[in-house]
Every structure is written in C-alpha cells, then in structure tokens.
Amino acid sequence: MNKLPIILVFLFFLSVSNFTYGQETPTQDIPAIEISSISLSIPGSTKKLKFGNSSDGLFQALGKPTKAEKYYFEIDEKYAMLYQYDGNEIYFLDGKLHSFDLNTTSIQLNIGENSIKIGDPISSIASLFDGFDKKRNHYGGYIRTGETLVDCCHLSIDTNGFIVTLIRFHVQ
C-alpha cells in the first residue's frame, strides 16, 4: 500500500491548521495603555472603580453585587473574591481589583475619558489606538496593560464587528 497520499493529506492539514491558528501578533505590536487609566463604571455614572481600589470602591461605584464568593486562582495559588453583577464578574485579589469579565451592557470599561461596553462597534476601540484594526485578528484583539501578554484586556467581537466580551486578566 502506498503511504504517500496519506502523508500528503496529513501535511496539507498540518499546514492549513498552522496558517489558520499561527497568526500571532508580536507583543510590541499590541496597543498598550497604562493600567492607571482603566476603570469600570455603570453607564452614565461618574463613580469609577479603578485598579488598586478595594471592595469598598466596588460597592460605591457598582452597587451591591448579585452574588459574592471565593474563587481560587491556580496560577497565583491564592483565593480571590468574585463579585457577580448580572453576568459580569469582578475579581479582587489581596483586597484589590485584579481582573474582570464583562458580558453585559450594565458595566462599561473606561479608558481615560473614553468608555466602551458590550455591544459597541469595534471602531470604538480603533479610534482610541491608531492602527488597532490592523493589529487584531478577525475575532478580537488585545490591549496590553503591562509588560507581558498575561497582563492585558482581551476583546471578543461577533461577525458584525460588535464587542461581545471584555476580559482583563493578569498573572502576578
């Protein structure tokens, strides 16, 4: 039995998968912002929750959560507090705002004086960072908030170009 056709098919699928999933953006090409310029708020409110704020700042800015529970960060090997707000998750590690997962329009992400929220077009991000639309893949993009890719905000967009999730993750 000739194994050449099987090997050729295997090599074809291997090269297609590398072409599809191997398009990484170099770290230096990812737009970067200072973490101190990022905050969370309820749309229309002037009260903001900034990184480094305690849970008292959370309650002042976003009100009472729908649920609060301990959450274990395996990489940090520490317990954090997870506060849920109608589908949005806010994590506090060592008593300070650590990360978030925004999935609804009830909480917005503020970058300086600009804000973005779920349902906004991707152009709302592109206007903040020159060339951002050229430095992302078709399904989302990253904004660095530190020196590494494990300190960033990830955006997911739908096929119409609207933001569907905003996630900030960080590893200490």
Q: What does the model show?
A:
With 172 residues, the protein is of the alpha+beta class. It is built from three helices and eleven strands. The longest helix is centred in the N-terminal third of the chain and has 18 residues. The chain is globular. About 9% of the residues have low confidence. Keywords: Signal.
Give a quick precis of the structure:
Keywords: Signal. 17% of the residues lie in helices and 35% in strands.
Q: The biggest beta sheet, please?
A: 7 strands, antiparallel
Strand content: 35-45%
> What share of the residues lie within helices?
10-25%
Radius of gyration, rounded?
19 Å
Number of alpha- plus pi-helical segments: 3
Distance between the termini: 55 Å
Outline: globular
What structural class do helix, strand and pairing data support? alpha+beta
Widest sheet: strand order?
3-4-5-6-11-10-9
Q: Give the total of beta strands.
A: 11
How do the SSEs run, as a string of H and E?
HEEHEEEEEEHEEE
pLDDT < 50 runs, ≥5 residues: 8-23
Signal peptide: 1-22
Keywords: Signal
Secondary structure layout plus pairing:
Blueprint: H1 4-21, E1 38-41, E2 49-50, H2 55-62, E3 67-73, E4 78-85, E5 88-93, E6 96-102, E7 108-111, E8 114-116, H3 123-126, E9 140-144, E10 151-157, E11 163-170
Antiparallel strand pairs: 1-2, 1-7, 3-4, 4-5, 5-6, 6-11, 7-8, 9-10, 10-11
